[in-house]
Fold:
Amino acid sequence: MIDYNSIYNNEGMTYVAYRQLIDELLLAGQTTGPDDSEAMLHYTKMNVQRMNRVDKTVQIDEALQSAIGKIGSGYRLLVISEGWCGDAAQIVPVFDKLVQVSDGKLSLKLVLRDKNLPLIDAHLTNGGRAIPVLLVLDEQGEVRAQWGPRPQVLQQLLVEWKKENTDMMAIAEKLHSWYAKDKTRSTQDELSRLFSELSEA
Structure:
């Protein structure tokens, strides 16, 4: 049995602490997770720039604000992430912004995937440890909703891209190009539905 309350309270980091950890590790020539290769360091540096951009530009749309306005208070967002993950860089700042506009209804903590393998293994995507994963916990520590690792439309595109091309760098380029054009709209649409269902439950 996974004790979500314990993970949230004892291992979870605020968004600010998560960003600081990534920055501090980079200064030491490391990234989150066990792989400090040049490639992973490069991904992480790029992701810091991506997070900075999303932090500055993301606006929570009316539909999502309205959906959050209708939920009860006391919900906690537990997010499984890593600094080297490109999807996380595009999506995690949206979760932080959600908390900022929630009038105290939501709080956010992040945990690292590779330090919490039993947690991610309870929330696999098609058998893989894909991240980020958002778990919405109630006050009792029960998982009331789950979302991730990316919007459904992109998940389907990724399956097609992988059939056409085995070059992960080329796929990553397509992925980030898609995120840049989408401007978090698909993520926000899906989160609107998630929180609407939560308020109706």
